[in-house]
Specification:
The complex is a heterodimer.
Chain A lengths: L2 E9 L4 H11 L4 E8 L3 E8 L4 H10 L4 E12 L4 H11 L4 E6 L8 E8 L2 H10 L7 H5 L2
Chain B lengths: L10 H4 L3 H22 L1 H9 L21 H6 L13 E8 L5 E7 H17 L7 E4 L7 H13 L2 E4 L5 H11 L3 E4 L1 H13 L12 E4 L6 H11 L2 E8 L4 E7 L6 E3 L4 E6 L6 E2 L5 E7 L10 E7 L1 E2 L11 E2 L4 E2 L4 E3 L2 E3 L1 H10 L7 E8 L2 E9 L9 H19 L4 E5 L14 E3 L4
Parallel strand pairs in B: 3-4, 3-5, 5-6, 6-7, 19-22, 20-21
Antiparallel strand pairs in B: 1-2, 7-8, 8-9, 9-15, 10-11, 10-12, 12-13, 13-16, 14-15, 17-18, 19-20
Classes of the chains: A alpha+beta, B alpha/beta.
């Protein structure tokens, strides 16, 4: 089970993140989760937004000269307690999968759980492994209701 | 008049009257043209196309009828098709980076090597070198002409040569102290770096360091840098000019008046042309420098366009030499950059980018000089195709471009990724170079 993620390229300069988030904000687009990968010369902003808004966001970004990309990631539910995340990572490790990146939702989840967004090197295999280990993955519909 | 004591290596040649020089050059030019016509099919075809025969070139006034040669000729006829002698007569090859990743090479006969040594002996002598001097050569030894050129000139004078080659600064300074080097030959930027390091080590030029003069060249520099170098090291800093195609350094050199560079006119003829029309310009006018070798027997070059901009003067010099002097190079007629001594054409970088899947052909080259070393930054635009949600994938493309530039151009560049549409679009002439070096 996968959800959509929007990634945007940014130059590593003062003000670029503000300008991009302002553009999305003024376009009425609500970010549910956000992470920034930065290198010396550039940054990648990854965000989860309501799937009904993705096309609008892509158009808006393109019109304003941004390069963006939509791809699929896993949203996993983990127990919100010490070692909760470690258990998930152990499953990933034992299955010989590796995490390319991971971040968490901005919004509080239902009591006792946290939600992690994951990109693993083999998404299909990860989905099977998570199902076998009964790790809850959120559907796009569930995310959109957040 | 500076009141300096001027040493002249070969007064007979360097101080001959203008009439004598005219006669000498005319005779040597017609010899060279005949040799080229008879031995180099490419040049013969070019002369035939203009209806020129060797006997049409009698005096140096006739030089203006000869077709030009270009750097691209050295690439197109690489490596041996411009030789005007049997290959077995070649005793040495030198070269420099070309425009396509292949070097351009020049072949030297025994006689060419001797002429080159003579020109460098004159160059070093003009800077004050005698057989009593210790000459530290910190130019690279290799295909590059700098190291061997300086070595041969100092050797001919009978000075003590210390062939250090470039780099290893601490060791350079140790040897400079221990051996009591009095002359230094290297690039001006490396000389500046050496000077600054000497100062940082608390050494005092004139006391701990015995240098009195240096011959510096192989990269563009300014009069201000030259004066700075003189103060930094407490020396006479002399500018020298040369290019591999002409046989290396020593084509022209500063005497201690440091007012223009004396051209070794009994071996090369210098002209200034209008780069647009190719018409010869009179002395005093600024234009493109064109050289003709008149004593080279391995690979003579006729009317070779350097693309360097300067002017010439035949006004007498206080040093006593009568040879024509060329001014400092003030620019280029093409967009060639010299970065760390390597010739770089923006078109080479463009080719790398165009060949790389998913990369836009819009770019900007930013050249700077940091800690006396040239840096090149290649700014590339991000594209939809290149963009990924993972850093690793983008970095892979960036690394690939960096490696390609290194292999094609021969120097390390820093590749940065910029926002789409942030680079100037080509509208006839896009500005693709920002040169922040204070030259």
């Amino acid at each position: 089970m996968f959800i959509k993620q929007l990634s945007v390229f940014l130059e590593n300069n003062p003000g670029t993140l503000r300008a991009m988030t302002e553009l999305l904000g003024r376009g009425g687009i609500d970010m549910l989760a956000l992470s920034i990968a930065d290198t010396q010369s550039f940054g990648i902003v990854r965000t989860i937004i309501n799937s009904s808004q993705i096309d609008d966001a892509v158009t808006l970004l393109k019109e304003n000269g941004y390069i963006s990309k939509v791809n699929h990631v896993i949203c996993a539910s983990v127990p919100d307690r010490p070692l909760g995340l470690t258990e998930l990572l152990s499953v990933i490790e034992e299955s010989k999968l590796s995490v390319e990146y991971m971040y968490s939702f901005l919004r509080a989840a239902e009591k006792g759980t946290a939600r992690m967004i994951l990109r693993l090197d083999d998404g299909k295999k990860a989905e099977q492994v998570f199902e076998e280990h009964r790790i809850k993955m959120l559907s796009q519909a569930e995310v959109d209701k957040m | 008049m500076s009141g300096k004591q001027h040493l002249i290596y070969n007064p007979e040649k360097e101080c001959m009257s203008r009439d004598e020089m005219h006669a000498w050059q005319s005779a040597k030019l017609s010899e060279t043209v005949r040799r080229e016509y008879e031995n180099v099919p490419m040049y013969r075809a070019r002369m035939d196309a203009k209806g020129l025969k060797p006997e049409d070139i009698r005096t140096i006034e006739d030089i203006k009828y000869l077709p030009f040669m270009e750097k691209t000729d050295l690439r197109d006829y690489y490596p041996f098709d411009l030789l005007a002698c049997p290959k077995s007569e070649i005793v040495r090859i030198h070269g420099s980076s070309g425009t396509t990743g292949k070097p351009i090479v020049s072949g030297y006969t025994r006689s060419d090597v001797n002429v080159w040594s003579e020109m460098m002996a004159r160059t070093l002598t003009a800077a004050g070198c005698t057989k009593d001097d210790v000459v530290q050569v910190a130019y690279g030894f290799g295909l590059f002409t700098g190291g061997f050129g300086a070595y041969q000139g100092a050797d001919k004078i009978g000075a003590m040569v210390v062939p250090m080659s470039s780099g290893n600064t601490q060791r350079q300074i140790m040897m400079m102290q221990d051996l009591g080097a009095t002359m230094l030959c290297c690039t001006p930027s490396y000389a500046t770096y050496l000077g600054e390091t000497i100062r940082e080590m608390g050494l005092v030029p004139g006391k701990d360091i015995k240098l009195k003069a240096g011959c510096f060249g192989a990269e563009p520099w300014t009069e201000a840098m030259r004066v700075h170098l003189e103060e930094l090291l407490g020396i006479d800093a002399c500018d020298i000019y040369g290019l591999t195609e002409m046989g290396g350094p020593g084509v022209a050199f500063n005497c201690l008046e440091k007012d223009g560079m004396h051209v070794n006119e009994d071996h090369v003829i210098a002209e200034i042309i209008d780069p647009a029309t190719g018409e010869q310009l009179p002395y005093g006018e600024k234009g493109e420098l064109v050289f003709t070798t008149i004593t080279k027997t391995g690979m003579p070059m006729l009317r070779y366009r350097t693309h360097d901009i300067c002017s010439l003067t035949d006004k007498p010099c206080a040093c006593g030499r009568t040879t024509v002097r060329m001014s400092r190079i003030t620019g280029r007629t093409d967009d060639m950059l010299i970065i760390r001594g390597v010739n770089v054409f923006p078109s080479q970088i463009e080719t790398v980018l165009v060949k790389t899947q998913g990369v836009a052909p819009h770019y900007m080259l930013v050249v700077d000089r940091v800690n006396n070393s040239d840096t090149l930054e290649v700014q590339v635009e991000m594209t939809e195709e290149m963009f990924s949600d993972t850093v690793g994938q983008i970095e892979n493309v960036r690394r690939y471009i960096t490696e390609q530039i290194k292999s094609v151009v021969g120097i390390s560049a820093k590749v940065t990724l910029n926002a789409p549409k942030s680079m100037p679009r080509s509208e006839g002439k896009a500005k693709r170079i920002i040169d922040n070096r204070k030259l």
